[in-house]
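Before any further analysis, backbone shapes were mapped to integers, which produced the following:

***
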Amino acid sequence: MTGRGVAVVRPGALTTVQDLGRPGYAHLGVVRSGALDPAAARLVNRLVGNAEGAAVLETTVDGCAVRARCAVTVAVGGAPCPVRVDGRPAAWGTAVRVAAGSVVEVGTAVRGLRGYVAFGGGIEVEPVLGSRSTDLLSGLGPAPLARGAVLPLGAETPVRVPIDVPPWPGPPDALVLRVRLGPRDDWFTPGALRTLATRAYRVSPASNRIGLRLEGPALERAVTGELASEGMVLGAVQVPPDGRPVVFLADHPTTGGYPVVGVVREADLGAAAQAVPGTAVRFVPVR
């Protein structure tokens, strides 16, 4: 084996390369993208001695498996899951030293949805607009992992401050999303706004990196006309014709023609990344 890297043995349902995204290009039709649970991505990077913005793997539900082509420090975090190295149990949520040729297996999430895997030195695929993140909607960045693909790694630096018990937040039993109403809340009836603030929704199985689709009571519109396409932001709560809200996540479109009743605070969206289908969701209007 030559060179620093990892080879994909099992790609899992959907595993992508993610960092903290590519902000500043919305005017060109490019959203930030990046890790859906950025706090988890930052923490696994710190565990292996990387800068917080280094590229990691983001797994979905059933993890992945990779073969190390060099000795490397690995940390798995995000959704709790079993971890194995060459078939033997290994620690989740802390740094593990892995020998060249060893297979690291990230198992199915026990709670939550998305796991994060950091390698010492970070994943060094070719950046696009300053980021190594995969954007599923636009197709920017590296393709989702496929069996046999090789991901290059950067130079590893020693971990200076070992962490024995990192402060991992557990995946949510229920989501509470703080939402600032507007800019199109006046397109909805007063009853619809009361419904949004007082009724419970559930996470739909149709959710993905683009948006958190919700099941529950429809929001009645006061204005039934067409809306010209306007800019969309991270956390926007768009309401399509069926009246069920959609909370836009990292790979959201940059424009849309359905009214946005409010915008969820970015600090609440990491928990949304770990909410499994059926999770209860409540909106709390804030100023």
In short: The chain has a mean pLDDT of 94.
